[in-house]
Amino acid sequence: MSNWRKKREYRTWRAHVIRRDKRCLICGTIKNRHAHHLDHASYFISLRFRTFNGVCLCKDCHMNFHCNFKNSYREKCTQKDFLNFAELFKYLFSVSLNYVAKNIKIQINEVRNETSTF
C-alpha cells in the first residue's frame, strides 16, 4: 500500500480544500486546519483527490469525528456519517447555548431582585 498522503496530488487537494472553505465547517475556527475526506480516501480511491470530496475541519473537530464519532481514523466513513456528525454538533451546540442563555437570564433576574430590594 503506497502512502498517498506524501504525493503532490494530495498536498494540492488539501490546499484547495482549505483555501476554498477557509475555516472549520463545524466550529468556525481558522486554527489548525485539516482537510477531511467526506468519503474515506482509502475506500473510495477514485474520489481521493476530488475537491468536492473534502471539507476543512480544525484539528479538534477532525479528531472528534474520527475518534469519538467513528471510533477510529481507520474506520470507513462516508458523507452521510459526516452530515450526521455535523447535525449532532449543531444540536449539542444549540443545547449548550440555550443552557447558557437560560442561566444568564436567571442570574440577571437574581441581580435585579437583589438590587430592587435596596
Description:
This protein has one domain (4-116). Helix content is 53%, strand content 8%. The chain has 3 helices and 2 strands. The protein has helices at 8-21, 59-69, 79-116; strands at residues 33-37, 54-58. A two-stranded antiparallel sheet has the order 1-2. The chain is globular and about 65 Å long.
Concise account of the structure shown:
The protein is mainly α and 118 residues long. Helix content is 53%, strand content 8%. The chain has one domain (4-116).
Secondary structure elements and pairings:
Elements lengths: L7 H14 L11 E5 L16 E5 H11 L9 H38 L2
Antiparallel strand pairs: 1-2
- How many separate structural domains? 1
Question: Roughly what fraction of the amino acids lie in strands?
Answer: 5-15%
Overall helicity: 40-55%
The number of helical segments is 3
Shape: globular
Rg on CA atoms, Å: 20 Å
What are the salient characteristics of this protein?
single chain, mainly alpha, two-stranded antiparallel ribbon, 2 strands, 118 residues
